[in-house]
Amino acid sequence: MTGGRWPLRAASLGAALLLWQGLTSLDMNLWLRFEQFPTVGEIASTFAERARTPDYWQDLASSLRRIVTGFVLAAVLGVVVGTAVARSRIAADVLGPLLEVLRPVPAIALVPVAILMFPSNEQGIVFITCAAAFFPVLVSTRHAVRALAPVWEEAVLTMGGGRARVLFSVVLPGALPGIFGGLSVGIGVSWICVISAEMISGEYGVGYRTWQDYTVVDYPGVFVGMVTIGALGWLTSTAVERAGRRLTSWLPRTAASSAAATPPRPRPSFQPARRVSAPGRGTAPQRATTGGTQT
Question: Are the beta carbons of 194 and 122 closer than 8 angstroms?
Fold first, then answer.
């Protein structure tokens, strides 16, 4: 990101906070009711108090541990299963119908299944987080692998490469942009589901603490939880996107960025001499003429 874009983004965030402060401090009650909303100052004061307590950091660490564990499992399983379904007809016939039946089921609807199946709430929350990110990664990987041009695979096979060489030299590198697109979607969906799961069956975590604040009508604490969730989601999404840009840096850039990054080549100040074909090499010999008569 260029340095000139940061001031505009900071100004946009500052304008939103000023609007929030104005609507809540004036107790605006038009079609939307802001009279019971905490002001920006009250939320900042509550956040400063919470940040000095160990419970806040314990909740933050618990949510991060759950999201990282579930997301890494979903990334590995999604890439493996998506590649297998896209490359193998047997895998597509065996796993395809089952995956298509399970894919529309919301991950948060699996909370009763997780409670019955896993011996602890911690494992159940990780399972829900993994299920939330698994299907976006699976679908994006499947489409990315199927969209690859077969000419590259045929070139590797022609040069004597095996199936493993094709997989690791052609298929996975070529599908990386699509895979990271699914990972970017999956990390956002994972945060939605892990917070919901913590609210329902958690013992620690940002979602659990936010729900507890709501039950005791501590609205500044609720908004502290919301701000914390938003910040964590932004940080993890940014980390995934930067990793994707780094791993796909070998891809050709757009024409605009290439033109901006590459200086124009200097044009020669002289015209190269034209090559005159010698007689007998496909062109007739040139004859000098003087006064319209041949010499």
Answer: no
Query: Cα(first)–Cα(last) distance of the chain, in Å?
Result: 71
Nearest to 38 by CA among 219, 227, 216: 219
**CB-based contact 74:187 (threshold 8 Å):** no
- Collect contacts of 220-229 with beta carbons under 8 A, ≥24 apart: 220/38, 220/42, 220/43, 220/45, 220/46, 221/46, 221/50, 223/38, 223/43, 223/46, 224/43, 224/46, 224/47, 224/50, 227/43, 227/47, 228/60, 229/191, 229/195
- For residue 43, give every residue at least 6 positions away whose Cβ sits within 8 Å of its Cβ, in sequence order, or none: 220, 223, 224, 227
Residue at 193: amino acid letter:
C
- Reported as type and span, the H/E element at residue 208 is helix 206-215
Residue 267: what pLDDT?
Answer: 47
User: What residues contact residue 17 under an 8 Å CB cut-off, 6+ apart?
Assistant: 40
Classify the C-alpha dihedral 122-128-133-138 as positive or negative: positive
User: How far is 116 from 127, CA to CA, in rounded Å?
Assistant: 12
Residue 224: how many other CB atoms lie within 10 Å: 27
Per-residue tokens: 132: 């939330």
Residue 8 half-sphere exposure, CB side, CA atoms within 13 Å?
5
Residues of the chain with confidence (pLDDT) below 70 = 1-3, 253-295
Residue-wise pLDDT for 268-295, tens only, equals 444 444 544 444 444 444 444 444 444 3
